[in-house]
Prior knowledge:
Blueprint: E1 3-10, E2 22-28, E3 32-42, E4 47-57, E5 66-78, E6 90-103, E7 111-123, E8 138-152, E9 156-170, E10 184-196, E11 209-215
Antiparallel strand pairs: 1-2, 3-4, 4-5, 5-6, 6-7, 7-8, 8-9, 9-10, 10-11
Amino acid sequence: EVFSAVHVIPALSDPPKPVVPIAVQVEPAQLRSVRLGAGGELDEIKTDAHLIAGWEDHDLLGGLRDFSVDLKPGIVLYPTSLTDFRTPKRFFYEQHLRLQFRQPGAFEARTTAFVRPELNIYPLLVQAKPSSDSVVPNYIEPKVAVGVERRFGKHFFSTLAYNLQGEKPFAYPGQQLDPALPTALLSFPQLVTQIDFRDDPVHTHAGFAANVDLQFAGGPFGGTAT
């Protein structure tokens, strides 16, 4: 069974005794959870309203296999932004869908294997104050990452993954697709390492931490980017 909290309570006496009995209280963790919510974004480039839905199972088919689904659909209000707060003229649908499966104890006890497929739909907004009739490129983005992660000792953590990502432009109803926009395929391995010598990862008072992210595209891995 998995526990979310452990409380150790010493039974102190007066006068003190050389042997102190303790009581250990544990709380079972919830292996499955559902998340629902709503939110919005307002910055110098983009304004949107979105929903958030998610589901997690921390013991899928037994063995503490972890499976999660996260979905964030939304509507982009264009060209409304923080620096140009005007009435929206167009509305773009956006979506971020991510699934994740994690298998602990893959190959050996401290290695976790994972698969992370995603499907995203979004308008590519880069201008701070665009005109309301500007052509906005929109993309469908399927992607997947397959890899392993492992902790080495107390201070070193590493992830090795292979990523495959597509970028396909499309036009919303009433729009014209720009023929100059290419369809791109990204294929690359990725090594992420983390070194952490902080005294506390949340309330840090002393220590050192560093992250390194290495990627290589093209060559034997193909794709349209190098």
